[in-house]
Design a protein that fits this description.
Blueprint: E1 2-6, H1 11-22, E2 28-31, H2 42-47, E3 55-58, E4 61-64, H3 66-76, H4 87-122, H5 126-134, H6 139-151, H7 156-176, H8 190-204, H9 208-212, H10 216-226, H11 229-234, H12 241-250, H13 255-269
Parallel strand pairs: 1-2
Antiparallel strand pairs: 1-3, 3-4
Helix pairs in contact: 1-3, 1-8, 4-6, 4-7, 4-8, 7-10, 7-13
The structure holds glutathione (GSH).
């Protein structure tokens, strides 16, 4: 029996749902409403001490961290294999998950907050907002949330986000430029699955081309990735009309400013 604690439009829960679908596994959802701060309830913190989704429960034991959950699922349910066969390639696959976990994930949060969750935060009561900003008492998380709430797209954390996405999409374009379909060749692996929800969020927000206007291989990869049945089951079919409308409405409001910041970042990379 597999249970997934998740929140609908959470990127790292999407990653795990794609993997569950790829493995053909049955699972039960448990919703943790992040805007009601349910992730900070004492019961949930016992499962996930960071107070974040997702958490997978398998054989009565909790597993945290979406990258670790996906690797766990790949080991316990080996078919179809979602990791490269070669140990060197597996180490390189983890470069992709590290790129996401060490920058792109936070970046997605900052961009999503500055575009749309910021609006949602404005509609919370002062007590609810304070609970979210306080989180589990992590000062860095408070700083990030407060900064994107107050300064929106001009938050310095959005600059970190732009840089993290630039690195990921640049590396993806270079990797695919020899004509391969997927990051490790002719079959998709956890490296692609790691990137998919983060690319999808930028597509839904109408921001994908801030980075990828001149990256044809990334575009072709996206066409293949978004056509996978696991993409449909893990991401697109589960988005509510409201979530889609929020992304489509608010994303473009930060596009011009994001483009300016990205141009400044790319100019710096050239020096
Ligand atoms: N590294 C963690 C990140 C988890 C994470 O930040 N989850 C977000 C949703 S995508 C969350 O629960 N945020 C709630 C909060 O920070 O209060 C993972 O990959 O599982």
């Amino acid at each position: 029996m597999i249970t997934l604690y998740q929140f609908g439009n959470s990127v790292c829960a999407q990653k795990v749902r794609i993997t569950l679908f790829e493995k053909g596994l049955e699972w039960e959802p448990r919703e943790v409403n992040l805007f009601k701060s349910e992730q900070y309830s004492p019961e949930y913190l016992k499962l996930n001490p960071k107070g974040v989704v997702p958490t997978l429960i398998h054989q009565g034991r909790p597993i945290c961290e979406s990258t670790l959950i996906c690797e766990y699922l790949d080991e316990v349910f080996p078919e179809p294999k979602l990791t490269p066969d070669d140990p060197y390639d597996r180490s390189q696959m983890r470069i992709w998950s590290k790129m996401v976990d060490e920058g792109v994930h936070e970046g997605t949060t900052e961009i999503s907050f500055s575009a749309m969750f910021r609006e949602k935060m404005k509609s919370l009561t002062p007590e609810e907002r304070e609970k979210r900003l306080h989180n589990i008492g992590d000062p860095r998380r408070r700083m990030r949330f407060t900064s994107t709430y107050e300064d929106g797209v001009d938050s310095p954390f959005v600059l970190h986000a732009i840089a993290a996405y630039e690195k990921m999409f640049k590396t993806l374009e270079e990797t695919l430029s020899d004509g391969r379909d997927w990051i490790f060749g002719d079959r998709h692996t956890l490296a692609d699955i790691n990137v998919m929800p983060y690319a999808a969020r930028m597509v839904y927000l109408g921001l994908f081309d801030v980075w990828n206007a001149d990256r044809p291989h990334v575009h072709a990869w996206w066409q293949r990735a978004s056509a996978l049945p696991s993409f449909k089951d893990g991401i697109s079919d589960r988005l509510t009309p409201q979530e889609i409308s929020d992304m489509e409405t608010y994303g473009p409001t930060i596009r011009d400013r994001l483009r300016e910041h990205r141009a400044g970042h790319v100019a710096q990379l050239l020096h």
